[in-house]
Design goal:
Elements lengths: L23 E6 L14 H10 L4 E3 L5 E3 L2 E7 L4 E6 L13 H11 L9 H4 L5 E8 L2 E6 L6 H5 L30 E7 L3 E6 L23 E6 L3 H10 L4 E3 L5 H5 L4 E16 L9 H10 L2 H8 L28 H11 L6 E5 L4 H16 L4 E5 L2 H10 L4 E6 L7 H4 L13 H12 L3 H18 L2 E14 L2 E2 L15 E2 L1
Parallel strand pairs: 1-10, 13-14, 13-15
Antiparallel strand pairs: 2-3, 4-5, 5-7, 6-7, 8-9, 9-10, 11-16, 12-15, 12-16, 17-18
Helix pairs in contact: 7-9, 8-10, 13-14
Length: 506
């Protein structure tokens, strides 16, 4: 839920002192990084820095496809069980050592070690079980899975897992303690002052790809000497820093977009993301187990009204969990609400005004704001909707146990195409949609690497989703940044990550 920091205020802090630099870009971060050891310390803020320093075999494009990064090529063999990566020639680590398959295997063993809490460890030791990693020659690495998986590459490329980073063994001291991240990225880790900033500096010996830059893939070039990631917790302080020129790039709230767009020296860069907000419905609830009542709830909600309501008119609604940025997205045919249809379904179900409780929280303002808007829409259709505001941890506990009637909820981004559906489908108590046919379709979609088949399965799931209504899809979040006009090349991304390679100072 890290993106909520862009839209909800945080505790105020004093404004750090900056000096605009002609060869350094200053980026404001809502929080300090935890650290740079992906095995022990990563978080959403750390990823922003980490992705400039360390790279993986593959990475996501801005169209959410997976392309080679440190790999020159990749080949799927043995009906999807083996993935063969041929490494790029001439790539160097920040300590000057060349990239070989030995460092790839060492990095994998480091990340998957018994005491590791790397974010993706459970994925590759669970749903996607990696049986072995072999290095037949210095430039070839072979990952063999226990079972075929079309999601293997997508999970390897995940930004929240630091792109399954390839580190040099010197990143770890002789006693096994963490030293510093030594990667192959366009920037080298520089000075860090805890609570203040983290610097990265240009890597002079970086070996860029030659293909078109996009997302985390393609050509990367450090066009500035340094980037400073400064901690500026207060959204108001970030806005002041942008206006004064002390900050070059900062995440901004939706409320501040119009005023910053009017500034002569600033502009706003935004992008839709895969972050998805919805109304979850307890399908085992004595009242909501009647599909007609769930369908009535869906018919009563104007998703464009909800999306626009929480974003000051900037975000469209969406009746599908699949983001418009996804390659398997298919635009829904009809998004129009119908109070008349809702009332007819309620009458058919014999609804007699029983209360329907929506759980929400105020820690994440979008969840509370959308609950208020949805409540009004449901009441207009004759549904006795009430809101119970809980502390976020308690709401999350209800979500995890599946113990609720209805819940205003938001999901973090999923770049794996079928991940849009995996968030809600499955036998686990936290999954709202436990239909066996939906689970079987999801399993089939997760196993395939064929885009056409994946899209067909997603469309089938959407038809069932609209019919069974385990949840009501509301909208996808857009990320926005205020940017100083002195920068050339900065673009927001559906990957939700600030990227300062290929960005120059005019």
């Amino acid at each position: 839920m890290g993106l909520a920091l862009l839209f909800a205020g945080t505790a105020a802090s004093s404004m750090p002192v900056f000096a605009q630099n002609t060869d350094r870009v200053t980026v404001a971060m809502a929080e300090d990084i935890r650290g740079m050891d992906p095995r022990r310390e990563r978080d959403g803020m750390s990823d922003e820095v980490h992705l400039h320093v360390v790279e993986g075999l593959v990475g996501f494009t801005d169209s959410l496809e997976v392309k080679p990064v440190l790999a020159e090529s990749m080949e799927v063999q043995d009906e999807g069980k083996s993935y063969v990566f041929r490494l790029r020639e001439g790539v160097k680590f920040h300590n000057g050592e060349p990239l070989t398959s030995a460092e790839v295997k060492w990095s994998w063993q480091y990340l998957m070690a018994e005491n590791s809490i790397w974010r993706c460890k459970g994925v590759f030791d669970g749903a996607i079980k990696v049986a072995s990693v072999e290095t037949p020659d210095p430039m070839t690495v072979v990952f063999t899975l226990e079972q075929p998986s079309g999601s293997f590459l997508y999970n390897m490329a995940r930004t929240d897992c630091a792109q399954t980073p390839i580190l040099h063994p010197d990143s770890v001291a002789e006693d096994g303690s963490w030293n510093k991240a030594i990667g192959t990225g366009p920037f080298v880790l520089g000075e860090r002052r805890i609570g203040e900033y983290t610097d990265v500096t240009r890597f002079a010996d970086y070996s860029p790809r030659t293909d078109e830059p996009t997302g985390m893939a393609g050509r990367k070039e450090a066009l500035v000497e340094a980037v400073r990631f400064s901690v500026v917790a207060d959204p108001s302080a970030r806005t002041v820093g942008l206006r004064s020129g002390d900050i070059d790039v900062a995440p901004i709230t939706v409320q501040s977009i119009p005023q910053l767009e009017a500034e002569q020296n600033l502009h706003v860069s935004s992008s839709p993301t895969t972050v998805w907000y919805s109304l979850l419905l307890g399908m085992d609830d004595p009242l909501l187990k009647d599909v007609r009542i769930r369908q009535a709830i869906a018919a009563a909600i104007d998703v464009n009204g909800v999306g626009g309501g929480v974003s000051f008119g900037l975000w469209p609604g969406s009746t599908t969990p699949v983001s418009p940025t996804s390659k398997i997205y298919q635009k829904p045919a009809d998004m129009a609400p119908s109070v008349e249809k809702a009332k007819a379904l309620l009458a058919e179900a014999g609804y007699a005004g029983q209360p329907i409780k929506l759980i929400a929280n105020k820690a994440y303002s979008l969840m509370f704001d959308q609950a208020v808007i949805v409540q009004a829409m449901l009441q207009a259709a004759g549904i006795n909707a009430t809101i119970e505001t809980l502390e976020w941890g308690l709401q999350l506990e209800h979500y995890t146990k599946g113990d609720y009637q209805a819940q205003s909820f938001g999901y973090s981004g999923r770049f794996d195409p079928m991940g849009a559906w995996e968030r809600i489908i499955g036998p686990e108590s936290r999954k709202v949609w436990k239909d066996p046919e939906a689970i079987a379709l999801l399993d089939e979609g997760m196993a395939t690497a064929d885009d056409a088949k994946m899209k067909s399965i997603s469309n089938q799931l959407y038809e069932k989703f609209i019919e069974e209504v385990p949840a009501v899809s509301l909208y996808h979040v857009e990320v926005a940044y205020g940017v100083n006009n002195r920068l050339d090349g900065f673009k927001a991304s559906p990957l939700e990550a600030i990227r300062l390679w290929n960005v120059a100072i005019k």
